[in-house]
Amino acid sequence: MTLANRLSEPGCGCDAPENGGSLLSIDAALGLISGHANAVAGTETLAPGAARGRILALPVLAETMLPPFDNAAMDGYALDCVALKGDGPWRLTITHRIAAGQAAMDPVGATQAARIFTGAPIPPGTSAVVMQEEADRTGDQILLRRRPSAGQNIRRAGEDMIAGTQILATGERLDLREIAACAAAGCARVTVRRPLRVALLVTGDEVRDAGATLGPAQIRDINTPMLRAALSGAGVHLAHVERTADRRYALQACLTALADEVDLIVTTGGVSVGEEDHVKPAVTDAGGRIFFAGVALKPGKPVSFGRLGRAFWLGLPGNPFSAIVTWQLFGLALLRRLCGQTGGAVLRRHVVTGAPIRHRPGRCELRPARLAGFDGMGREVAHFETATHSARVAGLSQADGLIFIPSDADYLPEGSLVEFQPFCDR
Ligand SMILES: Nc1nc2c(c(=O)[nH]1)N[C@H]1C(S)=C(S)[C@@H](COP(=O)(O)OP(=O)(O)OC[C@H]3O[C@@H](n4cnc5c(N)ncnc54)[C@H](O)[C@@H]3O)O[C@H]1N2
Ligand code: MOO
């Protein structure tokens, strides 16, 4: 396989029809998510400072110019450099004093200078600001040895923002840089999407809470706290969390009740093919439609997506690492779509492998990887375990993200280019 060719292709290699049998490729599954899911209706207005993590439902326009007037970028002296005759040095008399917040209306004369401070308006009759370190002051006079250039140390009105121009677009997520831009634009309120209402259903007769005494054949519930964390924070209201038994009719009743309550139902477990896997039958029994059931990836093959009433449904596998991988790949993309965030998926980039990889062709494998600096050609190098284990989570905190081992690859030498998706919160 030629990795140079792989770079020019959009996906990770699992698009090849001969790979994965009847299973969908990762990118085809992402395509179905973006094809079906759109931003939920409903907005609210908030002060920008209270809207961190929220998604803009309307663009933000600059209400005024920024800066609103020409002002000094340094503490120093404002003067007219054009009026300086000959080669200097020049002696000027200080006739004004302007601090930030003070308006200066009197013009400054040709042989005069204004003492000025950073942020203060540039007085009429001046064309440059000389830093105080570059002027020798004696009493009310300054001596200049070097000719200043026109406009030096002046921040011009409107150089950052012009009134009426768009500063932020619909679909942008508000974080500190966007909130700073809103404040600079004079925007007192922003219109953002309402929080997404989400339900989390964790299936499994065997799972128990942390702290509970484990009976025979029982295990700790990893998926509830993990996905509670993934589904908390700005823009998402985790309206319902329930651990349900592996019973088809109980699940169906629960799904039916939630279908009109929330925008998104996330389930874990019970989504594979055994007769104890009741989630897909329960979704269809409840009148839901399944858009895909199974993707050619490892781990996370049984991941499924559909719609039930007005809610979307994302079925994650029960194995905790499979749930993490499928949440990172499909959950985040779905959440972004439903929240109206621009860009449906987390960006992938290319890295090089820090060791050879052996792989069984068939499914695209996602392996936790740690970024370990750059090679001699400036490419990021990823290190990883020798195999993927769908139930292991202990070492995950050491990983920065997931590398994509293409579905058709059987061997990749050290230094091969592969796709990498960083772990993301949202
Ligand atoms: N005959 C086949 N069997 C399986 C296939 C297959 O294609 N054919 N696929 C395998 C793959 S791949 C996966 S992944 C699993 C996923 O199955 P489910 O989504 O139905 O998950 P469960 O069977 O309910 O659980 C799998 C595993 O994870 C443990 N688990 C479940 N919930 C939790 C939790 N909240 N916290 C911690 N661990 C949890 C559970 O005990 C099982 O060990 O199916 C394969 N089988
Ligand atoms: O897809 Mo499963 O997650 O391979 O174990």
Automatic annotation (TrEMBL):
<dbReference type="GO" id="GO:0005829">
    <property type="term" value="C:cytosol"/>
</dbReference>
<keyword id="KW-0808">Transferase</keyword>
<dbReference type="InterPro" id="IPR005111">
    <property type="entry name" value="MoeA_C_domain_IV"/>
</dbReference>
<dbReference type="InterPro" id="IPR038987">
    <property type="entry name" value="MoeA-like"/>
</dbReference>
<keyword id="KW-0500">Molybdenum</keyword>
<keyword id="KW-0501">Molybdenum cofactor biosynthesis</keyword>
<dbReference type="Pfam" id="PF03453">
    <property type="entry name" value="MoeA_N"/>
</dbReference>
<comment type="pathway">
    <text>Cofactor biosynthesis; molybdopterin biosynthesis.</text>
</comment>
<dbReference type="InterPro" id="IPR036425">
    <property type="entry name" value="MoaB/Mog-like_dom_sf"/>
</dbReference>
<dbReference type="InterPro" id="IPR008284">
    <property type="entry name" value="MoCF_biosynth_CS"/>
</dbReference>
<dbReference type="Pfam" id="PF00994">
    <property type="entry name" value="MoCF_biosynth"/>
</dbReference>
<dbReference type="InterPro" id="IPR005110">
    <property type="entry name" value="MoeA_linker/N"/>
</dbReference>
<dbReference type="InterPro" id="IPR001453">
    <property type="entry name" value="MoaB/Mog_dom"/>
</dbReference>
<comment type="similarity">
    <text>Belongs to the MoeA family.</text>
</comment>
<protein>
    <recommendedName>
        <fullName>Molybdopterin molybdenumtransferase</fullName>
        <ecNumber>2.10.1.1</ecNumber>
    </recommendedName>
</protein>
<dbReference type="InterPro" id="IPR036688">
    <property type="entry name" value="MoeA_C_domain_IV_sf"/>
</dbReference>
<dbReference type="InterPro" id="IPR036135">
    <property type="entry name" value="MoeA_linker/N_sf"/>
</dbReference>
<keyword id="KW-0460">Magnesium</keyword>
<keyword id="KW-0479">Metal-binding</keyword>
<comment type="function">
    <text>Catalyzes the insertion of molybdate into adenylated molybdopterin with the concomitant release of AMP.</text>
</comment>
<dbReference type="GO" id="GO:0006777">
    <property type="term" value="P:Mo-molybdopterin cofactor biosynthetic process"/>
</dbReference>
<dbReference type="GO" id="GO:0046872">
    <property type="term" value="F:metal ion binding"/>
</dbReference>
<dbReference type="GO" id="GO:0061599">
    <property type="term" value="F:molybdopterin molybdotransferase activity"/>
</dbReference>
<feature type="domain" description="MoaB/Mog">
    <location>
        <begin position="199"/>
        <end position="337"/>
    </location>
</feature>
<dbReference type="Pfam" id="PF03454">
    <property type="entry name" value="MoeA_C"/>
</dbReference>
